Amino acid sequence: MSESPRKILHVDMDAFYASVEQRDDPALRGRPVVVAWRGARSVVCAASYEARKFGVRSAMPALRAERLCPHAVFVPPDFVRYKAVSKQVREIFARHTDLIEPLSLDEAYLDVTRTFTHLPTATATAEAIRAAIREETDLTASAGVAPNKFLAKIASDWRKPDGIFVIRPHQVEAFLAPLPVGRLPGVGKVMEAKLAELGVSTVGDLRTLGLSALEQRFGRWGRRLHELAHGIDEHPVVSERPTMQISAEDTFEHDLFLAEIEPHIRRLAEKAWQGYERERAAPHGRIARTVVLKLKTDDFRILTRSLTPPEPPASLEALADIACALRERVELPSRTRYRLVGVGLSGFVDADRLAAQSDLFG
Questions:
Q1: CATH of the domain at 215
Q2: pLDDT digits (tens, 9 = 90+) for 41-94
Q3: Both 251 and 308 in a single domain?
């Protein structure tokens, strides 16, 4: 740990989409609410805490959610409303600091080492933010307070919903020791299994292996594991991240052959292009050089094909034409059916840099 650790908050809205629906429709309050379109291909966007008691979770198939909780109220998502509320919450954050790193519409990291409000502690800042969210949006948020990002994220989940949990610098080692190693960021099921083979199930167990043994076994990732086990994370809160990709995708109601999906590619290209135009119009707008086509087969295999043409796509038509042409690079049998298609733009560069390259090689 550094001598003067950062003060980091992770603020996470409670069951955000479902809570907005319950707030705006009093008839839904206290009832199990599932935010999802109905249908065989739909997945759950969010579930109220009443629905979670039945095992309903985000990203599970809507049909399974319906089986788990037959009396749930299904509400189609309304992202325009959710984005508007998210904007309100971000404005509350911005009263305290400009070091805000949104992770999604409903959660963000804040660096409150120094704040505009000069509240005496990071905990006081977190409480002020939660109180303002409650008063101004009629919703609740949970917060984690810690010396770094990964600890703050763990802490925000500790007393959900509508809670706050603080991990002070001197508490870090003791707090982490009994946690399952799977709570560390980047440790998924595969890594958990590998660590279990070494007799590691908790963070405390992981520490006993030591840095050299972890590096020998896992290379650079071993060093990262060692740091995380001791609560070390120097990643700063990044208030602005450059755009890496803009995309749109959709799951079909019925599986389709490759030759049948051109209308869907062109429709999704239009959605992606709209987002791209907003990016280009921004003060530091950037240019995308690569077109990406994403496909998911009926057996859930994911394929991506991409092309970086000599000149970046300059129109919606150019984007759609390239995306459609990328189907020719799919080498699966013609009888293969597909359940999802996506169209994206990536390879973003600054417009000034691209212009300089054009002048250099023109």
A1: 1.10.150.20
A2: 788 999 999 999 999 998 888 999 999 999 999 999 998 899 999 999 999 999
A3: yes
Number of domains in the chain: 3
| 255 belongs to an annotated ligand binding site | no
Whether residue 327 lies inside any domain: the answer is: yes
Q: Do 70 and 21 belong to one domain?
A: yes
| 130 inside domain | no
In the chain, the amino acid numbered 207 is R
In the residue annotation, 279 being an active-site residue is answered as no
* Residue 25, both tokens: 């429709």
Q: Is residue 313 part of a domain?
A: yes
Strand segments (E) across the chain:
8-13, 33-35, 46-47, 73-75, 100-104, 107-111, 141-146, 164-166, 245-257, 286-297, 302-307, 337-350
78 assigned to a ligand binding site: no
Q: For the segment 190-231, what is each residue's pLDDT rounded down to a tens digit?
A: 889 999 999 999 999 999 998 999 999 888 889 999 999 999
CA distance 142 to 144: 7
Percent of the chain with pLDDT over 90: 74
Same domain, 206 and 310: no
Among residues 21, 50, 101, 107, the one annotated as catalytic is 107
Chain segment 89-106, per-residue pLDDT in tens: 999 999 999 999 998 889
